[in-house]
Amino acid sequence: MMSARFVSPGSFRVIFFLWASVLSLGLSSELKVKVRLPDGRITEELLEADSERDSITLEYRQTDGTLITFVADFKQDVKIFRALILGELERGQSQYQALCFITRLGHNEIIPSESMARLRQKNPHTVRTAEEKRPTETFSMNVAVNVTLAWQLSALIYNTCSVARDATYTREADMRHWLDTGTEGSMFETLPQAVEVPGLQSCRSVNDLWQPCSCTYSMRLEWYPCLLKYCRNKDSLGHGASYKCGIKSCSKGYDFTYYTPHKQLCLWEEET
Ligand SMILES: *[C@@H]1O[C@H](CO)[C@@H](O)[C@H](O)[C@H]1NC(C)=O
User: Fold this and answer.
1) How far is residue 99's CA from residue 264's CA, in Å, rounded to a whole number?
2) pTM of the prediction?
3) Which range is the signal sequence, renumbered to this chain (predicted)?
């Protein structure tokens, strides 16, 4: 049942991942992958695929304790990034601070949920680094999203972002796209932008903790299956048939910039 047919290609490339040939109806699965972080430490990344909901969830803890969660909703073409940042109690912060960033999921950003659900690891103890490092993408998140009303965008937003009610954001271009496709406007609130608030500075250069500023939060998906690899199988007549024989892994950074009413809510800008 779990056997994976596998033909070694002629190259020296080592293939780490195999496909389980199981029925994929309503399949959900979990994969734990050891991943090396940029500081050299190792974290365990959890990848969950739900082929019925057509979604993938990826989660890992950074060295500083921050929990990063990424959700891809293929049904709605929506992706969600969440950061649960440990607060500094001695600086009057709550136990943790939650941020949610919602944006459109492009095609071929990550492998389909059905392929993810069937992915198995040959050696779970191997520490992995991504084969391809993709450039960091910058997002200007100047629209606040009401999490209670966001079920219209994706059924997965509420569960992921209800801990970040006051800090769930999207881009104006994404909002316009969703409005054009019939989504109700009441869930969106456009926030002040640097152009509208003269003197709105980056939080990095603001000293007063109660002053509004433009905050940037950076996160990285350190390892994710971004492409399917195909191999060719030659039959006796020399005809080739291609079949899925592995994945390519990528890492990618994301910089999210958004308006925050108090620098107090953006203290990481100080520490960098
Ligand atoms: C979000 O929408 C709900 C339901 O309409 C409403 O009760 C709530 O006040 C809204 N939240 C914000 C921050 O506007």
Assistant:
1) 14
2) 0.87
3) 1-28
User: Is residue 6 a part of any domain in this protein?
Assistant: no
Domain that holds residue 103: 17-271
**Which of 143, 148, 162, 168 best tests ligand 1's pocket when mutated (most atoms within 8 Å of CB)?**
148
Distance from residue 105's CA to the centre of ligand 1 (Å):
25
On whether the CB atoms of residues 245 and 231 are closer than 8 A, the answer is: yes
How many Å lie between the centroid of ligand 1 and the Cα of residue 165? Answer: 10
Question: How many angstroms separate the alpha carbon of residue 146 from the centre of ligand 1?
Answer: 6
Helix (H) or strand (E) holding 268: helix 268-271
* Ligand 1 centroid from CA 157, angstroms: 15
Q: Is residue 170 domain-resident?
A: yes
| Domains of the chain: total | 1
Q: Which residue's alpha carbon is nearest to atom 10 within ligand 1?
A: 146
Residue-wise pLDDT for 232-259, tens only, equals 887 777 777 888 888 999 999 999 999 9
9 in a domain, yes or no? no
Displacement of CA 125 from its chain's centroid (Å)? 23
Q: Which residues contact 11 (CB under 8 A, 6 or more apart)?
A: none
The answer as to whether 218 is a domain residue is yes
If pLDDT is split at 50, 70 and 90, which confidence band does 95 have? confident
The pLDDT of residue 5: 36
Q: Which of 143, 146, 158 to mutate to test the pocket of ligand 1 (most atoms within 8 A of CB)?
A: 146
